[in-house]
Amino acid sequence: MYKGNAMRAEYKHIKLPISDVSDLFVGDRAIFSGRVICGRDAALPKVCELIDSGNINDIGINFEGAAILHTAVSEAGIGPTSSNKLEIEESFGPLCDVGVRVFLGKGSLSDTTIAKLEESGAVYAVVPPVTALLGKGMTSKRVVAFSKLGMEALYEIELEECPAVIAAAHGKSIYQG
Questions:
Q1: Could you tell me the sign of the dihedral formed by the alpha carbons of 75, 76, 81, 85, in that order?
Q2: Which pTM does this prediction carry?
Q3: What separation in angstroms does the CA of 129 have from each of 78, 82, 93, 120, 137?
Q4: Which end of the chain is more exposed for a tag (fewer CB within 10 A), N or C?
Q5: What is the mean pLDDT of each run of 10 residues along the chain (177 residues)?
Q6: Which domains are delineated in the chain?
Q7: pLDDT at site 134
């Protein structure tokens, strides 16, 4: 367990998109609201292919200051999937390179990914796996790419008051021993 500052009782209210996450630290409790891009192991590798080919603008979404929530979007709601799945964790670097500043999901990350977050000025926050709560806070949703993937397509949603704990920031992680 990370032995830094104790968890702070207050919540930091974060409006998305966000350009600077330098005041978010491991252990901070946060409430995120605003535009969130949703994708997981089916869609994120496709997004990375578009980044690598220089065609990321083809999907018509702005990644600058964005938050990515590792989830599928269904009628039942949304809930975080494991961010340390190979296909998801490999997307952190390319997504940071196009401006993503917040990653929301669950699970520990590799030291390499934590270092990339630090280098890019991005953070990772764990979200409680409470699909009903998160679904209630989703005020709009639209498919932005890969519609044939169904609920695993790339979505853009508006989310109100998504609770999270900052799990990796500034080269540190709550999972480090």
A1: negative
A2: 0.90
A3: 9, 10, 24, 27, 14
A4: C
A5: 49 95 96 95 96 94 96 85 93 97 96 96 89 69 95 94 93 86
A6: 11-173 (3.20.130.10)
A7: 61
Q: CA 94, CA 20: separation in Å to the nearest integer?
A: 18
Give the residue among 128, 126, 136, 130 at the shortest CA–CA distance from 157.
136
Residue type, 55: N
Q: Provide the b/e sequence for 57-90 (b: ≥16 CB within 10 Å).
A: eeeeeebebbbbbbbbbeeebbbbbebbbeebbe
Instruction: Report the SS3 class of residue 78.
Output: coil
- Note whether 70 and 82 are within 8 A (CB): yes
Helices (H), 70-129: 86-89, 92-97, 111-120
Which residue, chain included where needed, has tokens 């932005």? 144
DSSP class of residue 148? G
Sign of the CA dihedral with 175 first, then 22, 68, and 120 last: negative
- Cα(44)–Cα(158) distance, integer angstroms: 19
Structure tokens belonging to residue 35:
């535009």
The two tokens of residue 3 are 């032995």
Provide the CB-side half-sphere exposure for 112 (13 A, CA): 7
